[in-house]
Design a protein that fits this description.
- The chain is an alpha+beta fold and 348 residues long.
- The chain has two domains: 2-93; 112-347, 2-Layer Sandwich (BirA Bifunctional Protein, domain 2).
- Helix content is 41%, strand content 20%.
- The chain contains twelve helices and ten strands.
- The chain has helices at 2-18, 25-36, 41-47, 54-93, 112-126, 140-143, 176-185, 226-241, 294-299, 316-324, 331-334, 337-340, and strands at residues 130-131, 137-139, 163-165, 168-170, 190-199, 211-221, 247-254, 257-266, 283-292, 308-315.
- Strands 1-5-6-10-9-8-7 form a seven-stranded mixed sheet. Strands 2-4-3 form a three-stranded antiparallel sheet.
- Helix 5 (112-126) crosses helix 10.
- The longest helix is centred in the N-terminal third of the chain and has 40 residues, at 54-93.
- It binds phenylalanine.
- Residues 173, 175, 254, 257, 288-290, 311-313 line the site of phenylalanine.
Length: 348
């Protein structure tokens, strides 16, 4: 009996000793349970005591207590050893080598497209305009019909379109938002701009892209005339290109405005003398606009006898190309860091 207990003690001590320092917590707990738990040899041995004489009880009790003490001690030592090992391992893994070079964070630039878009929006926000949004997938009705461009109108040819089905297309300009906003304001004064993407079936090259962006402007109120349009655009273009710029309005045609104008600014490269940038004319075309056509007012719930308004459309990339001297429209869309990083500090 005694011999057997000693054997089992040695076996248990051996098992404790052999536990690896990186063992799983669960495995160690299982082992502890095996050695000291209810079904362990030592617990079983205690159970045999009840059948013994007092003398024998005393002797076996002392022996078993001694064994149990040894086992407890061995387990505690192992536990300490494991904890120490794991702590050291953790510390060494978390050690920071302060001699390593630090991580560098580079700050990108803002795409000049957004510099210009934000700047234009800011200028009009300061004049009290609301900035609105409209859908890029548009119905024929809004893109053309409500803008006084019926099905057979030749002006449709100027805007080669991407059709989704017979009556749905990618908007060819931001002007459909004019109609949408007029209907929303239901015959009340209105002052809005709308920046957004537009699409035309162009062959992509340095100056054309099948996707580009415009900012639409629309103001409707009582007694609005062409002078208001001119003054507004003059203020806008001077804020954008500089106070020294002169503004010129040339007559033009858009089905949804009457009269319609093409707006030029005096060339900022040669100051109006004539150079390659302005093709010798001294002026550069920057946008189109005009007085909202009475048909458009009528179709969109405004009484042309009471209300009048002006509208204009600006190409965002075109303005950015002019402002920053960019050679190819495709640069706006490629995300090339060599290009973008040149705009760290330019603009706001
Ligand atoms: N929608 C016209 C275009 O894309 C521009 C424009 C807008 C003209 C508003 C007049 C008034 O060419």
């Amino acid at each position: 009996m005694d011999n057997n207990l000693d054997l089992q003690l040695n076996e248990a001590l051996k098992r404790i000793k052999e536990v690896k320092n990186d063992c799983l917590v669960k495995d160690f707990l299982d082992l502890k349970n095996d050695i000291l738990g209810k079904k362990s040899f030592i617990s079983e041995a205690y159970k045999t005591m009840k059948d013994l004489s007092n003398e024998e009880k005393k002797e076996l009790g002392a022996k078993l207590n001694n064994i149990k003490e040894q086992l407890n001690k061995a387990i505690l030592e192992k536990e300490n050893e494991i904890n120490k090992y794991q702590l050291e391992k953790k510390l060494s893994e978390e050690k920071i080598d302060i001699t390593l070079p630090g991580e560098t964070f580079t700050q990108g630039g803002v795409n000049p497209f957004f510099l210009v878009k934000n700047k234009i929006c800011d200028i009009f926000l300061n004049m009290g305009y609301e900035v609105v949004d409209g859908p890029e997938v548009e119905s024929d009705h809004y893109n053309f019909e409500l803008l006084n461009i019926p099905k057979d109108h030749p002006a449709r040819d100027m805007q080669d379109s991407f059709y989704i089905d017979e009556n749905t297309l990618l908007r060819t300009h931001t002007s459909p938002v004019q109609a949408r906003m007029m209907q929303l304001h239901q015959g009340k004064p209105l002052k809005m701009i709308c920046p957004g993407k537009t699409y035309r079936r162009d062959n992509d090259n340095a100056t054309h892209s099948h996707q580009f962006a415009q900012i639409e402007g629309l103001l409707i109120d009582k007694n609005i005339n062409l002078g208001h349009l001119k003054a507004t655009l003059e203020l806008f273009l001077k804020r954008l290109f500089g106070e020294e710029r002169k503004i010129r309005l040339r007559s033009s045609f858009f089905p949804f405005t009457e009269p319609s104008v093409e707006v030029d600014i005096s060339c900022f490269n040669c100051n109006g003398k004539g150079c390659s940038m302005c093709k010798g004319s001294g002026y550069i075309e920057v946008l189109g606009g005009g007085m909202v056509h009475p048909n458009v007012l009528k179709m969109n719930d405004y009484d042309p006898n009471q209300y009048s308004g002006f509208a204009f459309g600006v190409g965002i990339e075109r303005i950015a190309i002019l402002l920053y001297g960019i050679d190819d429209i495709r640069r706006f869309y490629t995300g090339d860091l060599k290009f973008i990083n040149q705009f760290h500090k330019k603009g706001e």
